[in-house]
Amino acid sequence: MSGLPLPTLHVLSGLKVPRFVQQRKLDELRDLDLYPDDVWITAYPKCGITWASQIARLIKNRGVQNDVRLDVAVPWPENILHEEKLGELSQPRLLKSHFPYHLFPCGQPHTTPCKYIYVTRNPKDTLVSLFFFMKQAWERDLEWDDFFERFMKGDVFYGDYFDNLLSWLPHKDDKNMLFLRYEDMKKDLPQTVSKIASFMEIELQDETIAKIVELTTFKTMKGDNTANLSWLKNMKDEKGEGKFLRKGVVGDWKNFLSAQQSAEIDTKCTEKLKDTGFEFDYDTTN
Ligand code: PPS
């Protein structure tokens, strides 16, 4: 049985993107007026962009939950399915993108007045999450070993995982950037919410932070039909909950990667990250 027709990749601005990312949208973004309180939430696919987006929209709303869907609260303007009038969004605007730093459609982030949150996640869990997403949404017949090869070659949405990370990493301490790791968000959600709020220059009472933490746990978001992406085709389960939020853990890769595949990724990490001082967290204690 096949899933949805695969939105084949094409190359735009030197990057492999799905067909629903179109040059017309990138041109619009190039000409967009930008403001200092705009917050771009950015990540390679499956690294936690939805989670960070939900936290940011609740911070913007001072912890008040409303029935606006997350994809409306935080549009994804490079996608042709998002035709929001960006000039009419309420400030601070929250916007999402999967582009790497040097190819960012509005210009390189340090040349813009906006703020940027980048979320990264260890490549093994990212790969597993992407595999299950692709299988669920697009390619029911997808085989693990084939997909592993595709991931390693960067033959997936938004190209090579490491190219994306390495484009943002040198800017991680820039004033207009907040660099987050998925694994740290798992370990300390209250601290993550506080960090994002201070970055957005929004002061929150402790009880509001606690409320946002409660609203952004995996369990709550999975059952929250404004945040679980269950409106996407093939992303709703029998209980009506979102399948997009699959497991939400660190270390699921141990259930899927062979020893050889794991070692292949380790070798690539060593080669790509040497001299950066950056380390991944593969901890499985949560
Ligand atoms: S996408 O398709 O690029 O927008 O995906 P993205 O949102 O970046 O990543 C999806 C993974 O993030 C997990 N997720 C969460 N984990 C923990 N807590 C919360 N609240 C949460 N929300 C989303 C989601 O379950 C996907 O990971 P996996 O490993 O597949 O479960």
Keywords:
286 residues, two-stranded antiparallel sheet, Rossmann fold, binds 3'-phosphate-adenosine-5'-phosphate sulfate, 11 helices, alpha/beta, globular
Describe this structure in words.
There is one protein chain. The protein is built from 11 helices and 6 strands. The chain has a 4-stranded parallel β-sheet, sandwiched between helices. By secondary structure, it is of the alpha/beta class. A hairpin with a 2-residue loop joins strand 1 and strand 2 (15-18). The chain is 37% helix and 10% strand. The model has no long low-confidence stretch (mean pLDDT 93). It has a single domain (9-273), classed as 3-Layer(aba) Sandwich (Rossmann fold), CATH 3.40.50.300. The protein binds 3'-phosphate-adenosine-5'-phosphate sulfate. 3'-phosphate-adenosine-5'-phosphate sulfate is lined by residues 43, 45-51, 125, 129, 132-133, 216-218, 221, 245-248, 252.
